[in-house]
Amino acid sequence: MSATTSQPRRLAFAPNWAMRAALLVLAIYTVWASTRLGLTWDRVVHGMGEGGRLLARMVPPNFERWQLLLEGLLESLQIAVLASAIGILISLPLGVLAARNLSPLWIAGPVRAVIAVCRSLHYVIVAILFVKAIGFGALAGTAALVVASVGFIAKLFAEAIEEISMKQVEAIRATGAGVMKVLAYAVLPQVSSRFIGFCLYQLDSNLRNSTLVGIVGAGGIGGTLFAAFKRFDYDFVAAILLAIIALIFLAEIISGRVRAALR
Amino acid sequence: MNSITHDPVAPLRREWQRHTPAQRISRWLVWLVCVAAVVWAIRSIDIIPEFLADAPEQMGDMLVRMWPPDLSHYYPEVHNALIETLHIATLGTVFCFVLAVPLALLAARNICTIRPLNALAQLGLVASRSVNSLVWALLFVAIFGPGAAAGVFAIAFRSVGFVGKLLAEALEEANPGPREALRAAGAPWGAEMLKGVWPQVQPAFWGIALFRWDINVRESAVLGLVGAGGIGLVLDDAINFFQWERVSTVLLAILVVVLLAEIVVNRIRTRLI
Q1: Per the domain annotation, does B20 fall within a domain?
Q2: Strand residues in A63-132 grouped as ranges (E)
Q3: CATH number assigned to the domain comprising residue B148
Q4: Spatial separation of the C-alpha atoms in residues A244 and A73, rounded to whole Å
Q5: What is the ipTM of this complex?
Q6: How many distinct structural domains can be found in chain B?
Q7: Domain range for residue A231?
Q8: Would you call A249 and B62 a contact, using CB atoms and an 8 Å cutoff?
């Protein structure tokens, strides 16, 4: 009997061949797809030079037309506020209807499908459709962002409601309360703080998106930005971009403060 | 003594209130600000009443024109554009890591201990996140000319901020123990990262990459609207020519691809993590 039962030598850092093969495949794909899309090294180098020229033309940002800028920013803000308010109002009942622990499956299923469709279509596509259907302007932007908000918050609302403890619901139901009272006294207290968090987040992202829907003619600063781009007013473009970044920064700081105060 | 005999149940009749007066006033103020903001927005927003009045009718009219979708239009034009969109999303996600990994390493405070560099990297990440992908696409169309190349770069630069931020957070949560052990054994910096940090952040890394790819599939579908390639171009053409049956075909194709991407990502994620 020879002592061949000894363990095979254990490597401290065993090579992970599956991972290496996957990375190799990814590298091959990258090269193949790049050539298919016409993305060659020459083009990138050429693009870098062009990028330098673009930046040089943007450099002193031109704030001369600040009235136009302010007007666009205010309209974006209005779109964001209105879309968030309407979106939240629609999402509240939809969220309850889509929660599988509170509503029967034949209601929750279709409502979930509607929410999924709202979420799947990018808001810019929705904005184009609204612009074509109901004309240029802030109304189309607001409607598009309402759709996007519903897709996002209603889903989160439904998920939050599905996570609640059913004990309170049963207790309130046992007292003979109706549906609205069960919602008000058993469901809302458990989820209200999370709801407020979702709403703040959505207001934040609506603000970001409202600066953009103007590119397709749906109101807000995006229209001004796109017009400036088309007229090669790159210094004004830089000014608009800086203003948008500043606005989003400000909104992020404020919503961060509010969220910290709520906690 | 007298007061107790006077009314023994008086303490029980005390009215309980949940919040202190100061809290109540601040809550009321928050509501007031919210309502004021909405009222201000409604009163000053530039909405044409005639447009609002016939909006439902117009929407219905558009939907009727869209039905039935012109499915014969799908192959080859829409199909090829869809494949191009997926390439843009995937390549953009791959390329974003070229910038996102170094920035995340610089932004993570336990890996790069130089504070000004942390702040600089954070600034870069925030700037990338604040500029929307369509705006990035506009910039890159101006640089590279119209086409898929601009789309890939727009997606990559937009993703850097998101991926870098999440990656930096994952890096900061890593346990310092393995790194210290490796350093004590005399491992160089690269080995310390590869064997001490990478195994810890690997699940988060793949999760972030998949999540971002899912988002990028959605975003790359609209890049064509500003000329950056993909299915957005086909959509834009169809809308500009008022070919509503084709529009609905393209929308259906986008919807199916987005839903499929979500399902695939969820599958892979449950298997990986």
Answers
A1: no
A2: none
A3: 1.10.3720.10
A4: 8
A5: 0.77
A6: 1
A7: 68-262
A8: no
